[in-house]
Amino acid sequence: MPMPSEMKMQTTNSGGDSDKRRAQMFELARTIEQRADEPLTLASLAGEVGLSPSRLQKVFKEVLGVSPKTYQDAARMRQFKQSLRQGSGVTDAIFESGYGSVSRVYGEGKRSMGMTPTAYRAGAEGERISYAYRNTSLGLVMMAATDQGVCFVQFDDTADLLLDALQREFPKANLSASSAQHAPELDRWIEALDRHIDSAAPKPDIPLDIRGTAFQIKVWNFLQTIPEGAALSYSDVAKGIGKPKATRAVGTACGKNRIGLLVPCHRVLRGDGQLGGYRWGLERKQALLAKESQRTTRQTDQT
Question: Where is region (Disordered) located (predicted)?
């Protein structure tokens, strides 16, 4: 994915052919969304825009950040989730959204939603989520995880407030405090995160259970590519995900991020360089950026 300097270069130097090709890819993306329930092939899509399948694969990914198949999978999953929210039964929603089998959507559903489709429709009913707290230099933090990975990292003033926030996010899940006996991974993860916040320890490699709309997930995945010590503007992120006019929507997605620090929305600033918003307070955002800048400077000096 392009870094800020590359984005600016692309904006400045893009010619008519490049602009035409980008517009063509966005139009094809709209076609994929409208026909997400159909069995689209790379060859058939390539024929619609006069490119070879391999060339389409490359250009589409350059413009939108994902392959045509991944884009269609996300659009189909969005249709499926919408059908569930509107009250369709799980089996009906599966076939209405174009999935060829129940087993296929359950596999994709777990990857996209971190839970089975039935659990998603029921508000995570029956989902097991373990949580733990730690006091850090930035305040009290809670981390919570499903069996897929970390689904929640947030700060607040008290444990009760954090538990209330977790319950609002997953109102029908079975929540339980983590114990080393039953969920040792969560304790290790939060200890690694604590070391990362309070010392020079590197960012822990922790599996994430990210759930949201296709657009939100695209933004959150992009945020994870921003290196420590760097910061982008909301406009940079919008360009980076191939949605240059979606600056406001990017800001909204950052504000709805449930997994602080590990999905580093604190590395996104306003276009004028000001901090902008941060759901856990601007003081924490400023402190995080300062810590990361100091770590990066030390690492550079040592090399």
Answer: 1-21
176 lies in which domain range?
128-198
Task: Examine the domain organization and report whether 11 and 27 are in the same domain.
Answer: yes
Query: What tens-digit pLDDT sequence spans the chain (303 residues)?
Result: 333 233 333 333 445 667 788 888 888 888 887 777 677 888 989 988 899 999 998 888 888 777 888 877 777 766 655 555 554 443 444 444 344 433 343 344 444 444 454 555 555 566 788 898 888 888 899 999 887 788 899 999 999 999 999 998 888 888 988 864 455 567 777 787 877 777 656 667 788 888 777 788 889 988 988 888 888 999 999 999 888 889 999 999 999 999 998 899 999 998 888 888 899 999 989 988 888 887 766 655 555
194 plus 271 within the same structural domain: no
For residue 280, give both structure tokens.
């856990």
Q: Has 151 been annotated as catalytic?
A: no
Domains contained in the chain, number: 3
166/218 same-domain check: no
Residues 36 and 101 in one domain: yes
Please choose, from the candidates 278, 303, 300, 302, the residue with its C-alpha nearest in 3D space to the C-alpha of residue 288.
278
Q: Which of 93, 183, 254, 265 is catalytic?
A: 265
Task: State the residue for tokens 């933090």.
Answer: 141
Structure tokens, 210? 């990210």
**Which residues are CB-neighbours of 160 under 8 A, at least 6 positions away?**
none
